């Protein structure tokens, strides 16, 4: 069978399995196994098992569950609530200030948790009911949280950046730093659109204190409460800054920094929020274990899938077709962006990175693009996939938090933010220094 026909059959099989609800790791594994056995016979079962287990038998992957554990400790504590209330103290007076506060909280919480779903869920549980009670349109309330949650895979520490670094053998510390400026640039674009949307809708700017609370508290007491909440968040931010310093300063490897960060975040949650009981700690471990196993399974299955594609010469055929395009390098980048965008519509970020980054990196380098700049471009494309159908993980998280908001309203509220991300990609193409300047300054 020629590679093109084999590729079409593999793609159809994967789409069918995903369409009937098969988890992505099992879908990738099943299609790979069938393709390998059909092409080379039963002896391929041995290579299937070896590839599956060897793909994750690397010390570098220890950083993934450790960062996830760190994020679970933050997400399971009242850190998001304190961060949310503190930001509203400073931003709540602006038109649409509460929605802008939500995006700011998502930006900072993303740095604490490193996970888009965790960011979306933690801030959304508090932010959406509060915004709706103030009269914000459902689309604005849902859209700003769904979009703000995507920042979790860009602003460091980011699990997806770790996976990209391992898959492409690039510096994880440099990748983390490369995501800082673009991450906060996107947050700024989100805030500008939120301000415009709220202005068009009439503007909303009441402080985050209900009528009952305003009777019981003086303004001074409310300010003090919010400042105390901010003080409780600062140690967690210090942990993130310490991790970045350890990485780009050469003090520790990503796995070591992640382990220390996880320990300190759990310790801070216990000390600051008095989470002494066994049950909340067990929930942190359970959530971290569940997400870690899911990601590791996807990585292992995606590696097997990549092995199957390579064995059938599908990978080489696709890469050769892209490389043979005699076009301007920016046209080539446009084609790659469209490919990543479509892939992000159907697959989770982890699967897309593991399957495509090793294939695309040689093409990117041959076209004289910076691999760290490309990592940010790739990540923003995958962020768009988190708030667009048919998968749109963040859309479904928002819908589960506020089931009375229709999925259509959530989607329509999120689409303008997807356009903000497209604008962000264009800005990074015109000004690549927004990505490369800070890593070059700090790491040379």
UniProtKB/TrEMBL annotation:
Q: State whether keyword Transport applies.
A: yes
* Cell compartment(s), UniProt: Cell inner membrane
Q: How does it sit in the membrane?
A: Multi-pass membrane protein
Keyword Kinase in annotation: no
Source taxon at top rank: Bacteria
Q: In this protein, which residues make up the domain named TRAP C4-dicarboxylate transport system permease DctM subunit?
A: 12-434
Keywords from the named record = Cell inner membrane, Cell membrane, Membrane, Transmembrane, Transmembrane helix, Transport
- Provide the transmembrane region boundaries: 6-39, 51-74, 94-114, 175-198, 229-251, 257-276, 288-310, 330-361, 373-402, 414-438
Q: Give the multimer and partner information.
A: The complex comprises the extracytoplasmic solute receptor protein and the two transmembrane proteins.
**What family does this chain come from, according to its entry?**
Belongs to the TRAP transporter large permease family.
Described function: Part of the tripartite ATP-independent periplasmic (TRAP) transport system.
| UniProt cross-references to PANTHER family, sorted A to Z | C4-DICARBOXYLATE TRAP TRANSPORTER LARGE PERMEASE PROTEIN DCTM, SIALIC ACID TRAP TRANSPORTER PERMEASE PROTEIN SIAT-RELATED
The protein here is known as TRAP transporter large permease protein
- Origin organism is Halomonas flagellata
């Amino acid at each position: 069978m020629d590679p093109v026909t084999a590729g079409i059959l593999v793609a159809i099989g994967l789409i069918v399995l995903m369409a009937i609800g098969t988890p992505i790791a099992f879908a990738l594994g099943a299609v790979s196994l069938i393709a390998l056995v059909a092409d080379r016979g039963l002896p391929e079962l041995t290579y299937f098992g070896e590839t599956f287990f060897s793909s994750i038998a690397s010390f570098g992957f220890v950083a993934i569950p450790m960062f996830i554990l760190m994020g679970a400790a933050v997400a399971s504590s009242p850190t998001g609530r304190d961060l949310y209330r503190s930001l509203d103290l400073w931003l709540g007076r602006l038109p649409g200030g509460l929605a802008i506060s939500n995006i700011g909280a998502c930006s900072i919480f993303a740095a604490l948790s490193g996970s888009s779903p965790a960011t979306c869920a933690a801030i959304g549980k508090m932010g959406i009911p509060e915004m709706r009670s103030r009269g914000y349109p459902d689309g604005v309330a849902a859209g700003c949280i769904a979009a703000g949650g995507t920042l979790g895979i860009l602003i460091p520490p980011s699990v997806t950046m770790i996976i990209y670094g391992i898959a492409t053998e690039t510096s994880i510390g440099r990748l983390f730093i490369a995501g800082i400026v673009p991450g906060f640039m996107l947050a700024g674009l989100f805030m500008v659109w939120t301000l415009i949307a709220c202005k068009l809708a009439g503007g909303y700017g009441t402080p985050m204190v209900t009528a009952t609370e305003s009777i019981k508290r003086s303004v001074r007491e409310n300010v003090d409460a919010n400042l105390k909440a901010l003080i409780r968040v600062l140690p967690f931010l210090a942990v993130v800054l310490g991790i970045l310093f350890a990485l780009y300063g050469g003090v520790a490897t990503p796995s070591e920094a992640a382990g220390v960060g996880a320990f300190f975040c759990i310790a801070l949650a216990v000390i600051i929020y008095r989470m002494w009981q066994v049950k909340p700690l067990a929930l942190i471990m359970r959530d971290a274990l569940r997400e870690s196993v899911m990601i590791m399974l996807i990585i292992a299955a995606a590696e097997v899938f990549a092995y199957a594609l390579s064995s059938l010469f599908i990978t080489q055929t696709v890469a050769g077709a892209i490389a043979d395009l005699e076009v301007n390098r920016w046209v080539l980048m446009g084609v790659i962006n469209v490919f990543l965008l479509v892939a992000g519509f159907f697959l989770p970020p982890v699967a897309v990175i593991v399957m495509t980054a090793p294939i695309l990196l040689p093409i990117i380098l041959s076209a004289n693009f910076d691999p760290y700049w490309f990592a940010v471009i790739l990540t923003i494309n995958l962020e768009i996939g988190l708030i667009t159908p048919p998968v749109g993980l963040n859309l479904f998280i928002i819908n589960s938090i506020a089931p009375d908001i229709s999925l259509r309203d959530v989607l329509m509220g999120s689409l303008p933010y997807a356009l903000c991300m497209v604008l962000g990609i264009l800005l990074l193409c015109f000004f690549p220094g927004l990505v490369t300047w800070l890593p070059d300054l700090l790491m040379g």
